Amino acid sequence: MFILKIFKKMDFWLSFIFALSTIGISFIVVPYVFPDVLQSMFATCLLFGFFAGEFLCEVKHLIKEVIQEEKERIRAIEEV
Hints:
By secondary structure, the protein is an all-alpha fold.
């Protein structure tokens, strides 16, 4: 349940919007830069993988941060 706290973090939404917008732009711009179909598909897949990977990396760090906060909260409760 505490994983839902990720959605309250601004970093999640910023990285999500950045990933979606750059992936969308890559689908629009890349075919004009690389008119050959295979080059265009390859470049689009590379950009999609890169930005999706960046987003997932950010989510991983946010999950670690939320888990650490939850552990600290539990320790504080146990100390009292």
